[in-house]
Please model this.
Amino acid sequence: MLTIKNLHCRLEEEPDTVILKGVDLKLEPGKVHAIMGPNGSGKSTLSYVLSGRDGYEVTAGEVDFDGEDLLEMEPEERAAAGLFLAFQYPVEIPGVGNMTFLREAVNSQRKLREEDEISAKDFLQMVRAKAKELDISPEMLKRSVNVGFSGGEKKRNEILQMSVLQPKMCVLDETDSGLDVDAMKLVAQGVNALRGGDRSFLVITHYQRLLDHIKPDIVHIMADGRIVETGGPELALQVENEGYADILKRNAA
Amino acid sequence: MTDDRQAAQRAEATETLLAGAAEDAGAGALARLKSDATDRFRALGAPMPRDEYWRYLSPSAFNEKATPAERSTTQPAAGPKAPEASPFAAAEPLTLCFVEGRFEPALSDDPAAAGDALEIAVLSAGAAPDWASEQLGALERLGQSPVPRPLAALNGALATDGVAIRVTGEAVRPVEIRYLGDTDGGVHLRHLAILEDGASLTLLETGVGAARYSTVLEAEMKPGAAFDHLRLQTDPRLRRGATHLFARIAAEASFKSFTLAGAGDKRVIRNEGVLWMEGDDASAHIAGGVVGKDDAKIDNTVFLTHGALRGESRQVFKNVLSDKALGVFQGKILVREGAQQTDGYQISQSVLLSERAAFNAKPELEIYADDVKCSHGSTTGALDEGALFYLRSRGVEPAVARRLLIEAFLEEAVEEIADETLADVVRDQARALVVAAIR
Model:
């Protein structure tokens, strides 16, 4: 699905700040991968580089997404090819209605894939049904994108977009940050409902607690810009019990 | 430039602009206006770059003499060709067409069939009714102080036609004034609206009439009257436009005006609004959307006076500027002594789509009452990069993402329009301008 080889990147504005120092990662179709790691290890940067955000310069390495060179693609092309990033801090867009935004996103992607536009009626029905599952009120759909939404509402709105756009590869960047337990359960439910088939997930999180609700198949530990360990779900539990210190010490040698 | 030299240049420009003004004075209300306004313009003189309210927009474009638009004499016997449909057609307005500066009955609805609440007089059609003769030019004259508005006086001196509307009740159908024609010449039209006690009117203006056009609308609003004014300056044939709006608002009356201005090339538009709230509990809203590209210059200049108790006012102007376009907003709120519990709001904002586009804002507050709420703000910036990326990360193409953000930016001004059908017309027109500006 997604293969990252020896990925290096630094900040465009501060070329001395190297953040990714050789990330190697292979994400399998139909699997849920988790990346855990201490603050500053480069987890979120990895998600930004994958989504094509400005401000990061890739200095070495490559990313293959289903046979295509992901790093050569514009952000909207990555989305149309099936990549989705659930933002840690979803952006507020005053004046752009949530429904308008969703419709433009769906139709833009269809256009880029040379498919027909979805009919207004089908679109409305689909979104309403999916919103209901995520406990998103019709009123929230009418409001401007993320404006005045609580932290939990913003994250649920991210999952709604994911559910409407039906991506092949979902990257969740610290989706649990700022959520209470109930909100986290709701978000996890939404994600779990999308599991199945070949759809892959990359769940980036600092804490193990999200992984109680979204059970990963494979867990990676990231530190200082590299993946330092890979294992099964037990690796996440180990972090929960022992913290990152032992793992980091083990890999510092 | 020395003061002497500027004075000499002003005198020269003034006489150049007035040349031939009195030749076709004719008779009636228009004749008196033309004579008075000629004296007024001569006394004020043509605007000069160092004049206080012309510092951000050079008046030179307005100081070139334009040949008056001439009605084509080679028109086929069948009369002027039918124009394309008005963007406001969905609102089913009563339409009054001016072709190259003259009223054109063949393209207009019959003013006499305007209904019980409306009395409409075409100013070139001989003797005007007393209410029009008495009032024509009065508000423009009043509006020459404390800030001179020489182009409004020039409009009177050169006016060829116009319409006077008196409303005595609820005018159910909007009245639309359309400017048609595409000569290189200049057109000067003078309009008057009088809204009697409790009367209401929606007035629409659209089109150009000539490459260079000037309109002045004087609106006198009696107690409890409600006036909605909506104007489209989106015709690509417009090269130079100067407009003035003078509105005197009595107790409990409400005035609302919105103008969508779009221009490219080297086009220049100056829209001035002079509003007086003379009675208690009056309200005055003036708003605009501006989309400028290429070397266009678009200026909105507002002078709003709170002269009575509990007046409520809003000025909302949104500017989208690309290439080397210039946007100007000069907005003044004057609160006179005794105008307590005034509630004034003013915002002017711009989005600059290029590093060479510019926006100049000059908000002014002058307050002589002590129980007053007045807020004003002005911002200038680029489109929000974070929002653009968010949209693109969901698959939205960059051009569509930019359009969505710009439309959202303009929306705060567009939603000042109360009527949704009319607001949708403006949204459609704005979209076309925005798409052209970001291409």
Q: What stands out?
A: The CA atoms of residues 82 and 167 of chain A lie 4 Å apart. The two ends of chain A are 32 Å apart (CA to CA).
